[in-house]
Amino acid sequence: MADGVPALSPATRYQDKSVFMVQGTSVKRLQEQLRVQIDKEIDIKSSIVFPDKETNTMVLLNKETPGDHHFLVYDLLRSDYTRKVGKKSQNDNAFTTDQNGTLLIHVEGDTIYFDMIKMPNSAVLTDILKPRY
Amino acid sequence: MKEQRLVNLKSKKQLAVSEEILTSVQTEREKFIQNYSIPHKHSNGEVKSLGISGNSEYLTSIAADETILWLIKNGMVQMLVTIPREEEPGNGMTAGVRPLACIDNSGTKVVIFRGGGLKLSVFDIRDRKAFERKDTIDVIKELSATGQPGFLVSKDDVIHEIRFLSGESENVRIHL
């Protein structure tokens, strides 16, 4: 690492995350809703990760109900959870997501799992799935 | 008499769409990743946290005994280097604190945190094969040396996240 001077600055929780980097007045309202959602999740001891580049996604590990820990994928523009991934092991809490928010990497016992949590950004799929009126 | 399959316009179109999807899946393998899993290979204890590089090429898994670096490429994972816990002697650890590790985009620098009074171990990774201990960062000493007013950081504080800024190996961001 470079021999630089360390700097300390106050920060609100998750302010540097991709999902809060989007500018625009319409998105601001959604981000405020998300902040409320995040506070609720923190209250119930959920763990949260954000992809580095994707600005629309949040992935969290919900541990609210004992014996039913699961991952949830939140979509900022829909303001809702779009995907739920079940968890076999209730003790392992290590997880992360890739830069595009397409891959959920999590640990269950002796195994690291790599699960797709989002449709790939493919021109073919977009063309096939687009609504035709 | 051999039974013939009825092909009308609708089924013909569906078949063409299916072939198009199949071709796309076969040619864009890095996009259409299949779910897969690997054994974590930590000899002792559960994996406490995972850290991924900014470009999603490298992964770190950290347990009580060691830190393992992985290379993720085209839906495959390769184990690169294992850094045993004994290689972080001056660092120490605090019971109950979740250990953290992060790696930069080029896979050449790893930072490990295990508590121990807000100290970080820095390792250089050479040719994806070997590691070399480079430095120990004492966050409290660093901050008091530069005189940061208005902040009270103590040894009891815990780091929630460490990350290389923009994935580059020059700056690390720490969230307390």
Walk me through what this model shows.
- The complex is a heterodimer of chains A (133) and B (176).
- A 4-stranded antiparallel β-sheet of chain A has the order 1-2-3-4, with helices on one face. In chain A, strands 5-6-7 form a 3-stranded antiparallel β-sheet, with no helix packed on it.
- Chain A is an alpha+beta fold and 133 residues long.
- Chain A is globular and about 50 Å long.
- Chain A is built from 2 helices and 7 strands.
- Chain B is built from 2 helices and 11 strands.
- Chain B is elongated, with a radius of gyration of 23 Å.
- In chain B, the strands form 3 sheets. In chain B, strands 2-3-4-5 form a 4-stranded antiparallel β-sheet, with no helix packed on it.
- Strand 7 of chain A pairs antiparallel with strand 1 of chain B.
Highlighted features:
heterodimer; A: 133 residues; alpha+beta; four-stranded antiparallel beta sheet; three-stranded antiparallel beta sheet; 7 strands; 20% helix; B: 176 residues; 15% helix; 38% strand
**Quaternary structure classification:** heterodimer
List the helices and strands of chain B in order.
HEEEEEEEEEHEE
Radius of gyration of chain B, Cα only, in angstroms?
23 Å
Mean pLDDT over all positions of chain A = 86
Enumerate how many helices of chain B there are, as a single number. Answer: 2
Mean pLDDT of chain B: 84
Overall geometric form of chain B: elongated
Count of DSSP strands of chain B: 11
DSSP helical segment count of chain A: 2
Structural class of the secondary structure composition of chain A? alpha+beta
Q: Distance between the terminal alpha carbons of chain A, to the nearest Å?
A: 56 Å
Query: Percent helix among the residues of chain A?
Result: 10-25%
How many β strands of chain A by DSSP?
Answer: 7
Biggest β-sheet description of chain A: 4 strands, antiparallel
Largest sheet of chain B: 4 strands, antiparallel
Q: Helix amount of chain B, in percent?
A: 10-25%
